[in-house]
Specification:
The complex is a heterodimer of chains A (about 200) and B (about 110). The radius of gyration of chain A is 25 Å and the shape is rod-shaped. Chain A folds into two domains: about 55 residues, no CATH class; about 130 residues, Butyryl-CoA Dehydrogenase, subunit A, domain 3. Chain A is about 85% helix and about 0% strand. With about 200 residues, chain A is mostly helical. The relative contact order of chain A is 0.12. Chain A is built from seven helices and no strands. By secondary structure, chain B is α+β, with helices and mostly antiparallel strands. Chain B has one domain: Orthogonal Bundle (Arc Repressor Mutant, subunit A). In chain B, about 55% of the residues lie in helices and about 15% in strands. Chain B has a three-stranded antiparallel beta sheet. Classes of the chains: A mainly alpha (about 200), B alpha+beta (about 110). At the A-B interface, α2 and α4 of A face α2 and α3 of B.
């Protein structure tokens, strides 16, 4: 006994592999549910009772798809919050660079502040449109991430031009924006992975 | 239509006390007179979502000689949300009744 229920629980666990902790929890919870349902069936103990319990429970892919969709919403919310924090810290870092670093006025030292500023403005523009219209899409977040990386890289080049004299607040702010950009990258990758998983579960469903 | 109100229905099923998933499904079936015969698995994403939102809390319990189960309970926020859900449903049901009842005329 238990073959039908065991196979179902294994399939559900596989479909929930985008969140291993959730997969383990649900496997145990759903298994208990299915045994309760099978034992309440008039034909218990029998494989038919197990089969009916599984049928009443619904397709494993469909249930995993609902979990995946909820996970996408949560991941989207977290990613946008991290983007907001990254933009705020990058803004502070930019202002500090403007206040503390004097431009030499030649070549790279002219280009770097421009890229620093306009890549940041592009991130704000794309981020605002994305927030209003494409909140569940990873594309605006990925564009913002690329723009912020460009802005931060330009800022580092700019600070690097003044290696001897770069003040501590400028360096600390740069470290903060690099750390937050790394966190944003982590969230954007996770968001993209969950979106792909949800789409796959919906296709097979 | 049921899907849109599933969260409130789940909260209402837990109003009488903590319960595990299977008991919640059974309570929903009983309370609806068998009308809400939804696939049982759909309750779990809803329970998880409500817990994430802080409307439910849950914990593993093992009754003596029984199976280990996750038991869900309403939180204070969940109780407030249920009351709000009831009010919203009351307004909606009244509006539908007025629209379909035929006893009233449309406002000019």
């Amino acid at each position: 006994m238990g073959g039908v229920i065991d196979a179902y629980v294994a399939a559900l666990k596989r479909d929930l592999d985008f969140d291993p902790a959730l997969a383990r929890r649900m496997a145990e919870e759903v298994e208990a549910h299915l045994w309760d349902a099978a034992e309440a069936d008039p034909s218990w103990p029998s494989a038919d009772a197990e089969r009916r319990a599984v049928e009443r429970f619904g397709l494993a892919r469909g249930i995993a798809g609902q979990f995946a969709s909820d996970a996408v919403n949560r991941q989207a919310r977290r990613s946008w919050i991290v983007l907001l924090a990254t933009i705020a810290v990058t803004f502070v870092a930019m202002r500090l660079r403007v206040l503390w670093l004097a431009d030499a006025g030649d070549g790279l030292s002219v280009l770097a502040p421009l890229l620093d500023r306009y890549a940041f403005v592009a991130a704000i523009g794309v981020g605002s449109v994305g927030w209003w219209a494409f909140r569940r899409s990873v594309v605006p977040l990925a564009i913002c991430l690329a723009a912020l990386v460009a802005s931060i890289a330009a800022g580092i080049v700019r600070a690097g031009l003044f290696v001897d004299g770069a003040p501590l607040p400028v360096l600390l702010a740069a470290a903060g924006e690099i750390a937050l950009t790394g966190l944003l990258l982590f969230h954007v990758v996770g968001f993209g992975r969950k979106l792909r998983r949800t789409a796959m579960l919906r296709r097979v469903e | 239509m049921l899907k849109g109100h599933l969260d409130a229905i789940v909260l209402a099923a837990l109003e009488s006390g903590p319960a595990h998933g299977y008991a919640i499904i059974e309570a929903i079936k009983t309370r609806s007179g068998g009308t809400f015969d939804l696939p049982e698995g759909t309750i779990y994403p809803a329970l998880h979502r409500l817990e994430e939102a802080g409307l439910l809390s849950s914990d593993w319990t093992t009754p003596p000689g029984g199976r280990r189960r996750r038991v869900y309970a309403l939180t204070r926020s969940g109780t407030s949300r249920l009351a709000e859900g009831r009010k919203a449903w009351g307004r909606f049901a009244k509006a539908v009744e007025s629209s379909l009842g035929g006893g009233r005329t449309w406002a000019a």
